[in-house]
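User: I'm putting together notes for a lab meeting next week and I want to include a structural view of one of the chains we've been expressing. I don't have a solved structure, so I'd like a prediction I can at least talk through. The sequence is below, exactly as it appears in our construct file.
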Amino acid sequence: MPRSPRSTTRVPTRLGLLAVHTIGEGPTAVLWHSTFTDSRCYQRVVDRLSTRRRLLLVDGPGWGASDPLLATTTLTECALAAEDLLDGVGVTGAVDWVGTAWGGRVGYRLVGTRPGRLRTLVAVNAPTAPLPRWQRHVLTAVSAVLEHLGPVAPVRALLRSTQFTGACRARDPGALALLTGSLEAADPRSQAASLRSFVIGRTDLGPELARAIVPVLIIAGAEQQDLSPARARELAATCRSATAIVVPGARTLLPVERPAEFTAAVLAFWERNPVNPVD
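Assistant: Thanks for the context. Below is the predicted structure for the 279-residue chain, given as structure tokens.
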């Protein structure tokens, strides 16, 4: 079992109080989760990662121990809230940012508009492109169901199929319990607002990523539906210093489904990009 967070703080931001769980010592790394989970998305990897970094595990707006998100917002506002959080916990230097899906897209926004905030960026299954129209229509219907009925069985089944491979769903009840627990902990109105704000409302972040001047690692699950391995390599090629890797047998929640491969990739990336003592 992962060790308990050393401390948990709720920090005022423009999107309400955001919970941040701190574990480990050393240079700071921020871990931001995917939509439909909270910071427990990283519970299988924090023990090893915290041997190299002080981890700030964030519950994004509307999730985990953070305030509910009751109105539609934008990724731009979310990135500004992330800066509010960093200021609120006293982080003055650049951080290593690790984000899965939603968290990776927040990282793209920061690396393209506030380059001094990030020292490195790891983006996991985080596409830059908006959703196609048909997906927006489908997910708009899902958001209405979430808002009025909550994560009913058909919605839970849909989310499990998009977050995990069939093999994981069949053999790893702990992974399914993690997703279910995140959903049960969040207000259904927050789930709907998150879906509208950060998935349905996705905008093109390709230009922001292309402006990155820090090292970037793009990790794609081989069975991820939104970000193909080929597209991950194309995105890496747009950056000054970026690498793409593909993890077999994984879909969106790669830190849950393939924790060993995820951890090895992140630690190797940090090793290749050592922290400057003056950072």
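A couple of points you could mention at the meeting. The chain has a mean pLDDT of 94. The beta strands are 7-13, 16-23, 28-32, 54-58, 95-100, 118-124, 216-221, 242-247.

User: Perfect, that's what I needed.
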